[in-house]
Specification:
single chain; Alpha-Beta Plaits; five-stranded antiparallel β-sheet; Uridine Diphospho-n-acetylenolpyruvylglucosamine Reductase, domain 3; alpha+beta; binds flavin-adenine dinucleotide; 14 helices
C-alpha cells in the first residue's frame, strides 16, 4: 500500500468515500486561474468536507501525519495560491456553505467560507442591504477565498477591500483546532489583531471556515460614466483631478489605449475616434447626490474629454470590464498580467515606464485596472507556444517589480502572492519586517504544512 493509499483510506474513514477524490493530472483541483501561465500541481488527494468540524478533522489528521494542506475556494486565484505545487491534500471548501445568521436589521451576516461571492452579494441585496466588495470572478469565487486573498475590485476605491467588511472569523488553526477570532463587537482591541493576520494569508496560516460580515443599507442610486480622452497623460491627470476637487466616487477604473483597441468591439456603446485612454467611473448615493455628482463630474472632466458616455445599463459596462482578462488572453493565445500598484501620483510614470520595458523586450503590452487606487494589471500579450516570448515576459515582470519598488508601490495589489510571486517581499519591506513575516508563519504553522511554498517572503533558498 502506498502512502497515498493509506492517506486516502484514513480520509475516507473521516469523510465518507464520495468526499475523497483522486486527482488525476487533468483534475481541475490541480490548477486555478493561473493555469494560463502554465502552472499545474499534483494533489495526492482532494477532500470535500461538509462542515467546519470536518475541516478541523482533516487538518488534524494531516498535521499529525506531516501531509501538506492546500485550502481551495473557487479556484479563481491568479497567482497559483490554490495549486498543490508540492502534493498533499487539496481541501476544498465547496460543501461548507451554510448561511449561519442573516440579520438585516443589524446589517450583518455570518456565512460559511464556501458561499460564493455572488450569493453573498445577492443575499444582501434581497434583504435591502449592500455588500460592497466586488472582485471580478464573483460567480465562481467564494467568500472564504476573498477573505483569504483580501480581494479588491472596482468599488474598493470608496468601500475598501474585503477585509474592511469582516468583523470576525472562524478558522481551523494548526494542529487542527476550530477557533473564533473577532465577533460582532464593533470595537475590539483586546489582543493583537489575529483576524487581520488571517485575512490575506492565502491559506498559509489557517483554513477559514466562516466569516462574519458587516453590510450597508442598499444604495438608492448609482450612475456609471465612461470618460474617453486622447492620451494616457490626460487620463492620469483626469483621475487625479477627481479627489483633488473633493469628490468621492465609488469606482474609478481605467483602460489604456492598447486595451481599448482590443476591447472596443464588445463595449456597450461607441468608442470615439482617437480615444487613447478611458476612465470608468461610478457614483452612488441618494438620487439627488448621484445627480449632483454626475453633473459635477461632467463639468470637471468635460473640457478635456473626447466624449463622456452614461451607459443606461451600468451592469453591462461592468460585465464588459469583467471580460477584459478573457478577451486579452485571446489576442495572441495568452497574456501575462502582473497585478501591481503605484502611489496614485506616480501612476502615469509607472504606466509609461512599463510600456517602455515591454517594448524593449519586444512584447506588445497594455494596462488596465483600478486607477483610483493606483492598481494596475500590467499585461503583455504572448504566444503560449513560444518559449522565448514567455521568457521575455518573465524578464518584463522582474523589471516591473523593481520599478514598483523604486516608485513606492506594491508588487501584489489585490491578487495575492501565491506561488507566482513568492520570494519578492524583500524588494518592498525592511529586513526586520521580512523576518517578522517569517516568524508569524512559524508561530501559526510550525511544521510548514499549510499551503507550503506560498506567500513566501524570500526566495526558498534564502529563507532562514
Ligand atoms: C476573471 C477574473 C477576475 C478577477 N478579478 C479580481 C478583482 O477584481 N479583484 C481581486 O482582488 N481579485 C480578482 N480576481 C482574482 C480572484 O478572483 C480572487 O483572488 C479571489 O478572491 C479568489 O477567491 P477563490 O475563492 O477563487 O479562491 P482560490 O483561488 O480557491 O484560492 C485563493 C487563495 O486563497 C486560499 N484560500 C481559499 N479559500 C480559503 C479558505 N477558506 N481558507 C484559507 N485559505 C483559503 C487558497 O489556498 C489560495 O491561496 C479575478 C480572477 C479572475 C479569474
Amino acid at each position: 500500500m502506498t502512502v497515498s493509499d493509506s492517506l486516502k483510506n484514513d480520509l475516507t474513514r473521516l469523510l465518507g468515500p464520495e468526499h475523497v477524490l483522486n486527482a488525476p493530472a487533468q483534475s481541475p483541483y490541480n490548477s486555478d486561474a493561473s493555469r494560463r501561465r502554465g502552472l499545474h500541481g499534483r494533489a495526492d488527494a482532494v477532500v470535500l468536507p461538509g462542515s467546519a468540524q470536518e475541516v478541523a478533522a482533516v487538518v488534524r489528521w494531516c498535521y499529525a501525519h506531516d501531509v501538506a494542506i492546500v485550502a481551495r475556494g473557487g479556484g479563481t486565484g491568479l497567482t497559483g495560491g490554490a495549486v498543490p505545487t508540492d502534493g498533499g491534500v487539496v481541501l476544498s471548501l465547496e460543501r461548507v456553505r451554510a448561511v449561519r445568521e442573516l440579520e438585516p436589521g443589524l446589517w450583518r451576516m455570518f456565512v460559511e467560507a464556501g458561499v460564493s461571492t455572488r450569493d453573498v452579494q445577492r443575499l444582501a441585496r434581497e434583504n435591502g442591504l449592500f455588500f460592497a466588495p466586488d472582485p471580478g470572478a464573483s460567480e465562481q469565487s467564494q467568500i472564504g477565498g476573498n477573505v483569504a486573498t483580501n480581494a479588491g475590485g472596482p468599488h474598493a476605491l470608496k468601500y475598501g477591500v474585503t477585509g474592511a467588511w469582516v468583523t470576525g472569523l472562524e478558522a481551523v488553526l494548526a494542529p487542527g483546532e476550530l477557533v473564533q477570532v473577532g465577533g460582532w463587537a464593533r470595537k475590539d482591541v483586546a489582543g493583537y489583531d489575529i483576524k487581520s493576520l488571517l485575512i490575506g494569508s492565502e491559506g498559509t496560516l489557517g483554513v477559514i471556515t466562516a466569516v462574519r460580515l458587516r453590510l450597508l443599507p442598499a444604495r438608492e442610486a448609482q450612475v456609471a460614466l465612461v470618460v474617453f480622452v486622447g492620451t494616457r497623460a490626460e487620463g492620469c491627470a483626469a483621475m487625479l483631478s477627481v479627489p483633488a476637487a473633493g469628490m468621492e466616487v465609488a469606482a474609478m477604473d481605467f483602460a489604456d489605449g492598447e486595451t481599448l483597441a482590443h476591447l472596443a468591439g464588445g463595449y456597450p456603446g461607441e468608442v470615439p475616434d482617437g480615444a487613447g485612454f478611458a476612465l470608468l467611473l461610478e457614483v452612488d448615493g441618494t438620487r439627488e447626490q448621484v445627480e449632483q455628482q454626475t453633473d459635477e463630474l461632467r463639468e470637471l472632466l468635460g473640457g478635456g474629454a473626447l466624449a463622456i458616455e452614461q451607459p443606461q445599463d451600468a451592469a453591462a459596462l461592468w460585465r464588459w470590464r469583467d471580460g477584459f482578462n478573457g478577451v486579452l488572453s485571446g489576442v495572441r493565445g495568452a497574456k501575462v498580467s502582473e497585478d501591481v500598484s503605484f502611489p496614485v501620483e506616480r501612476l502615469q510614470e509607472g504606466l509609461e515606464r512599463f510600456e517602455e520595458i515591454a517594448a524593449r523586450h519586444g512584447l506588445s503590452s497594455c494596462a488596465f485596472g483600478h486607477g483610483g487606487d493606483g492598481n494596475v494589471h500590467a499585461t503583455v500579450l504572448v504566444d503560449p507556444a513560444d518559449d522565448a516570448q514567455l521568457d521575455r515576459a518573465q524578464a518584463v515582470g522582474a523589471e516591473l517589480f523593481s520599478l514598483v519598488g523604486e516608485l513606492g508601490g506594491s508588487i501584489a495589489a489585490e491578487h495575492g502572492v501565491g506561488w507566482l510571486k513568492r520570494g519578492l517581499l524583500t524588494s518592498q519591506w525592511d529586513a526586520r519586517a521580512v523576518q517578522l513575516h517569517e516568524q508569524i508563519k512559524l508561530a501559526f504553522d510550525p511544521k510548514g504544512l499549510l499551503n507550503p511554498g506560498k506567500k513566501l517572503a524570500r526566495p526558498p533558498a534564502a529563507a532562514s
